[in-house]
Design a protein that fits this description.
Layout: E1 14-16, H1 32-35, E2 41-45, E3 62-63, E4 66-67, H2 68-75, E5 82-85, E6 95-98, H3 107-115, E7 122-127, H4 135-145, E8 152-156, E9 162-170, H5 171-185, H6 194-197, E10 202-206, H7 218-230, H8 234-246, H9 254-267, H10 272-287, H11 293-346
Parallel strand pairs: 2-5, 2-7, 5-6, 8-10
Antiparallel strand pairs: 1-6, 3-4, 7-9, 8-9
């Protein structure tokens, strides 16, 4: 095979299935398929040394219960093919793995290695340390990169600085410029990204203060963790983390389940809340075996509806029983009070004068 554009020998891709396992390169399930009109691949750069983190495994650091890499992968789950340039590790969904040559050769070398495994006309290029990257930013980048005459689009941070690792590029001009840079400098190792971005006609996307927030230091990681809690998104983050941990591809109305838990706790007993939601999940699983995610979500909703109705009936029966008991208690109290009154005021006192002839 021919050498890569950076002059390094071609290396066969390594395919590692994530959880749940699906064929490598296959499109994952979910709404992302219909959400984006531009077909794209994604390259995630995850091979940095993380010197400012003391050499820690930055892609594996957890924020909001999920590894940073998995958070990035979730934002671009509509990609036709996902390439991660870095050391292999378990991931939340299937990816292709590769490494730059030499390892630690910098972002341009990593980009060149990842680009070798892509086939779409557009490629999303991301670092692996973006805790707040979301599908909206991905959509905006792809739309901007697809504009006539543009060769790509990148995010800018709140200070107006370009973020070339939160970007979407047209593949043809990207390959062209990488080849020219490699020819001029001998290879891509150790070269800055600006050598690439300065030569491309790029749109700028202001995606807000969070989209390009990256975690370079432990202070950044602490700030990201705190921000999730400050924004009141703890429950959503927890649900997402649990689904990822269990390999569940299912979107359900958490409000319905929370209402069910509340009704079970109030109408039956507090321990009934977790037990009821477990039974609802079990019933939905039985009813939707082999079904699509949408059908499974509908099964959860139907089981929740039935359980909620039952909890409300229990609550109504308990209220009726309490009302009946209170009425009976009141009636008994009234009866007791009446009997006491007859004894105190209705009986004639014994004066000792009857039958004595005393005037």
């Amino acid at each position: 095979m021919p050498p890569d554009s950076d002059g390094s020998p071609w290396r066969a891709p390594v395919v590692v299935a994530g959880i749940p396992a699906t064929p490598a390169g296959a499109s994952p399930r979910g709404a992302a398929h219909t959400r984006r009109m531009t077909a794209y691949d994604v390259i995630v750069l995850a091979g940095g040394a993380a010197k400012r983190l003391g050499g820690a495994d930055k892609p594996g650091v957890r924020v909001g219960g999920r590894a940073l890499l998995d958070r990035v992968l979730a934002a671009c789950d509509g990609a036709a093919r996902t390439v991660v340039v870095g050391d292999r590790r378990p991931t939340a969904r299937p990816v292709l793995w590769t490494r730059e040559v030499p390892q630690g050769g910098g972002p341009l070398a990593a980009l060149g290695a990842g680009l070798r495994l892509t086939s779409a006309d557009h490629v999303l290029v991301l670092s692996a340390d973006l805790p707040f990257l979301g599908p909206g930013t991905v959509d905006a980048l792809l739309a901007a990169a697809a504009q006539p005459g543009r060769e790509g689009a990148l995010c800018t941070d709140p200070d107006g600085r370009d973020q070339p690792l939160v970007a979407a590029y047209r593949v043809e001009p990207l390959r062209r410029e990488l080849a020219l840079i490699a020819t001029e400098h001998g290879n891509l190792a150790g070269l800055p990204l600006r050598l690439l971005t300065e030569e491309l006609d790029l749109a700028r996307v202001d995606a807000g203060p969070d989209a390009a927030f990256d975690c370079d230091t432990w202070d950044d990681i602490a700030a990201a963790r705190a921000r999730i809690r400050e924004h009141g998104a703890v429950l959503d983050e927890w649900i997402t983390s649990v689904k990822n941990e269990l390999g569940i591809d299912l979107d359900v109305d958490t409000g319905v389940l929370l209402d069910l838990a509340r009704d079970a706790a109030h109408g039956v007993a507090r321990p009934a809340a977790p037990l009821t939601t477990f039974l609802v999940g079990y019933a939905a699983a039985r009813a939707s075996a082999g079904a699509s995610p949408d059908e499974a979500a509908a099964a959860v909703a139907e089981a929740s509806r039935k359980a909620t109705a039952l909890a409300l009936r229990w609550e109504a029966e308990a209220a009726e029983s309490a009302e009946t008991a209170e009425s009976a208690k009141s009636a008994e109290s009234a009866k007791s009070a009446g009997q006491g009154g007859d004894t105190a005021g209705g009986a004639k006192p014994d004066t000792g004068r009857e039958g004595t002839g005393t005037p």
